[in-house]
Design goal:
mainly beta; Protein yippee-like; Metal Binding Protein, Guanine Nucleotide Exchange Factor, Chain A; Yippee/Mis18/Cereblon; 6-stranded antiparallel sheet; globular; binds zinc ion; about 0% helix; 9 strands
Length: about 110
């Protein structure tokens, strides 16, 4: 059992865990704000840190079938969004390898 090593981000705006303040992503890595999560609005990011990825599973979404993994804060283990492993629709392929963070689960941190 070891201590969780947390990465710290630097940027104009940092999004982090609402529960424990762990840093997740910078505004520079935000791809879109126009996503829908399980708890309302969600953001798409090109990269996030300090998350643990769950097992892949197939999910039917309004934009088609995707292979996704739920992602969890490494510090407090809250589920904060998901990662797109694969999209079957060609028009949705840009999401592959990117991450959704639910707005309800994050906040701006310093
Ligand atoms: Zn957390």
């Amino acid at each position: 059992m070891g201590m969780t090593h947390l990465e710290f981000l630097y940027g104009a705006r940092i999004y982090g865990c609402k529960h424990c303040n762990a840093h997740f992503a910078t505004i520079e890595s935000m791809v879109s704000k126009a996503f829908q999560g399980q708890h309302g609005r969600a953001y798409l990011f090109g990269g996030v840190v300090n998350v643990r990825e769950g097992d892949p599973n197939e999910r039917q979404m309004t934009t088609g079938v995707h292979i996704v993994r739920d992602i969890f804060c490494v510090k407090c283990d809250e589920q904060v969004g998901w990662k797109y492993d694969r999209a079957y629709e060609v028009s949705q392929r840009y999401k592959e390898g990117k991450f959704i963070l639910e707005r309800e689960m994050i906040k701006t941190v310093e």
